[in-house]
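Worked example 2:
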Amino acid sequence: MGIAASELCRYVIRPTLMYLGRHDAAAESLLLGIAASQSELGSALHDRRGHGLYSITEPRHRALWDDYLALDPERASLVRGLASQHAFLSAPQLELTVNLRYATAIAWLLVEQRRYTLPAPGDVLAMARIWKEIFHPQGRLRDFTQAWQTCACPIKQAAC
């Protein structure tokens, strides 16, 4: 069993987006849907597809730092501030598994890096397209929509 969607939204996704200065309902919904699709909200934090709530691979994590965050030292410092001091230096991929706010920031930056216009918070099919392109190219759109219906939709209707 994963993390309750309402708690993930309230205590991890929303504060992380606010910390990054990027909070809006569409970003929150998208990240909640991605976490539902990638790990069933944390039921599986490590598998062959990657690490943590969002199943981010080590090469993608490294490339985000090298190709995107390295070009914006202020943002890089902000994101680095979410990581633990020593673990990040020795095993940065471990932060994706154990540090929910750090993993959420990295997942958001993978989306932001592509410069998408975010869909409306209830446009599940548009969110599924973003998820498929960025996080799971072999995935089917219905995988995302089913995960959304099962894990995320009930909480979004209650407006976490």
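DSSP finds nine helices and two strands in the chain. The chain has one domain: 5-157.
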